[in-house]
Amino acid sequence: MSLRQCVKAVAFGVAVVLVSPLIALGWLEKHTWRGEVVFTTCAQLLALMPGPAGSYLRGAYYFGTLSSCSWETHVGFGSIFTHRGGSIGTRASMGAYCVIGHANIGDGVMMGSRVSVPSGKRQHLDEDGRLSSGRTTYDTVTIGPQTWVGEGAIILADVGRACIVSAGAVVVKNMPDRSIIGGNPARVLKAVDSAE
User: Among 140, 29, 36, which residue's Cα sits nearest to residue 86?
Assistant: First the structure.
């Protein structure tokens, strides 16, 4: 481990200690009320912390509350996970003002600012496709490892590994590995291997 990694690990450890009361509140909520009000409130509070310290505090909070989160992540200013069912891999990074629901973000994923990854396409529909007045249905959206997501993209379906999602793209159907993706609705523009 390099000196830089050691310093980052120590800073992350300090951040975990600082947010441990919030992690404990989230754990209590998960195991008693089964809601996400406390989880989301703490996420919103930490989203407003500026600079590198804020990024460490957000990363530490998600490390202790998400289903899986590496300590080697960057969560930009104003960015939040809205559900604790999400996960974020090693060396993944998101820019400012991203909103992430039930999503599995792979290792090395790079997301620009204002990216939205809601919990699938059918949160407000029942099994028959009708508007639901009862329980909300969440799908988990997966963004494959080493994928780049451009600013303002909206991801409603799975994106494969080593893809490039253009800024402003709206992904409504699953996309294959190693693709350049763009448009609304998004489509495969070309394979990454053939890109000039």
Answer: 140
